[in-house]
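Hi D.,

Good news: the full-assembly prediction came through. Inputs first.
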Amino acid sequence: MTTLFIGYRSNQALAILRERMPGKVVFLDLERYPRELPFYLRLSGGALEGCLFPPDEDPVPFDQVSCVYVHEICISSEAGVGFDQQDWAYLSTECWASLIALLEALKLHCRVANSVSSRHEVESRVARLTALSAHGVPIAPMLVTSHPEAARKFYAENRGRVAFRSLSGEGSARDRAMQPADLERLEDLRTAPVAFEGKLGDQPAWLALVGGRAILCPAGAAPPEPGLVQACLATARRLELELCEVVLRRLPNGRYQAVDLIPFLTPGTLAVPEVLEAALNLAWEGVPA
Amino acid sequence: MIAVMGSTAEPMIDRVYTELQKRNARVTLLDTDQMPGSLTLALRLPELSGSFVWSDGRRLDLRTLRSVYQRVGFRPFQGTARVAELCLAALNPLLNELPCLVVNRPRAAHSNASKPFQAQLIAGQGWRVPDTLLTSDPELAAEFYELHRGRVIYKSVSYLRSQVQAMSPHDLRRLETVRNCPVQLQEQIQGTDVRVHVVGERVFASQIATRSSDYRFDKGTSVTAVELPPELALDCLQLSQALGLTMAGIDLRITPDGEPVCFEVNPSPAYTYYEDRTGQPITAALCDLLEWAGSRRMAA
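Then the structure:
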């Protein structure tokens, strides 16, 4: 059986897992996709089969894959060399849609950490927090707006303890605490919506969610309420995240609030032996029920 | 309050809004062409409360919403593609979690992002789907062509609109290009095209007569309303429900021996094309559904 890793060589978390994974490991380097990573997926008479042909490796039939670790499925700009902008836009979307089909087909044979079909629901911080909140996880107060007055009111309600948060992606260099001077330029909001997060504070702990397990990090942190842990696990299950982290903030009353959900494990969390072991063991646990 | 959210340049948005106005329903148009500058959103989490605010001071409280018909993301917002991305990052979570009927929730539409993925879901519901090969290997593509004796079509893998084309011997000479971009090949299915619109629990079927592999690009196409056998209508209803869709446009081909083959389920069907040609009351059915959901919530 083969454990597949899909992503970029620069991804540290994938590299940590790949280096320590026992057994046969194949790395599909997205820098080489699609030109040097031929594949097929066949759907015929209700049956599904597929095979990957990584360079310098034996072919990998889907039914020989025990687990897939995939961090991201962005198409490398290398794939666009020689194409104009319009063709590149088409090509990258088609390559991306093909990867979704491949990974979803692999899900029938093995565990895929993480599934890509619900990826759009973890692309923005607002989506991630909304998903956590929908499952009962307490989250930090947030305002998403392009309305200057609403932002001004939120700032006042939170007594100036407010941060700008990027609406897309997994965070941005522009994420920062809001300053009084920012109130003067709130009219700029009308050009694009922004997320504001209230009640800033320390983020002393986080939950590493691995398969059906929740591991509190760091080990000595005050434990969160069981209900919060179960709600985080339920969110991860619904979003089909086998590997993720929920970043927690502790309020003065001792209760935790989630401030973000990271849809994979970070290198820092994989440095925790218990987390690393659980993440590696996922490869042998079979398809989730 | 019923919200119709999308660009007024889209006929479906215009038609649903106009119909609801004619019915004197409590309806608001949330025109995405005016977002984010002239029509702003203030969304509060975790309460999922807040409002849309127009530049003239009018305000729509999100808590008053009873149902939403949305076609967000099909037309540009005010500003660049990046602004559109940010607007969608704000609107999609709201539409996914609003505690009222949303036709359709963005998360339910996602299966259409990858057609071979959606085909897996459709086949999983017991439908016949065409023999399909997704590949970036020229030799395997050529083998598939031979296997089906040249009766093969190709079409896009993603949600991007493309013309379904019959593969020709000439295409075999340019198969090397699939190394740059994977291709989806399908066996050509003989039969009659039928487009089925599911709206809530109602089913509208249109039969399409064309000489083209893709009737959307054939000016000689004729569209007529047909009744589906009750079992097939029920299968269509169950398929859209399984995909989490309240409204769907299902593309079928009925083979000469009567077997339905499912090609695709469109989560945001441009149904006015069919309504105009058949007179089927699809807009009315959608408005009934939006009003019914509103009255149900009021009663609850």
